Amino acid sequence: MHYEQTTAQTPQDLPPKRKHKPLTAARITASVCKWSGLTVLCVLFLFPIWWMIVSSFKPQTVIYEQLDSFMTFLPSTWNIGEWFDSYVNLFQSFDYFGMAIFNSILYCAITVTGVLLVNSLAGYALARLEFPGSSVITTIVILLIIVPVETSIVPQYVILSRLGLLSSPVARVTGYLLPSIASAFYIFMFRQYFMGMPKELEEAAEIDGAGKLTTFFIIIVPLAKAIFATVAIFTFMGAWNEYVFANLMFPQARQKPLQAFLQLVNTYNPKDISMVMAALTVSTIPIAIVYIFCQRYIVEGVSFSGLK
To answer: Does 307 score more than 60 pLDDT?
Structure first.
């Protein structure tokens, strides 16, 4: 028979007990002040969003009548069926509003996929591959991070025009999506993350006969879910909120993404504030959902990438 030898734990081997500080009047006061301040800040940040959502449930006349009372933060009626009248009017008044939502989803899906593929491969190459000029390219990538995106809009438009990517609707979509695929910031994030991964994993895969691409997609990518999720979230939020370049590229309403289409809703005559609030609510919901359910990946990815 096989007997397992067990040893009794001595008091020195036991983990130290956590000592709780006694509650004092000063600590209680500090805790109450802290949570009270956080509650006030939470209300200040959330009440404009709450007012926007509630206003989308009201007729325009009621919104103006209740602006100077507390009822402006409450629905005008508790008949839920009447809350969505402004949403129905929004889709009936603008033929391409549903198309704008579809465009935003399509543009975001293509952008996120392209960004994850291109920038991860570039970051992996700078982190692991040794080739002439790799350090120079890394320095250039870091320097490009400080260049404001707004300064490149006009040069990008001129380049796309000379490449013939403004000649047709399909070409405009291609020209709109291409500049957003490569990002110096995301390349740097991927590089920093891959630099912190142990090289033994890749060496073991190389011994087994796996190539660089096979190692990357089979071993590295599954272990780097945090940074991929972080970049995907940042890319989605940036692509969904894109406004200036989208207005420049898409003069026709049929191709506009949702954020650019909101300008047409806001300038519609006669202007209906309830429809404007409904459109803003629709455009805000995806960002709120993504951030609420995926914010832990942002914290984890940024901490691993070494960015402050």
So the answer is: no
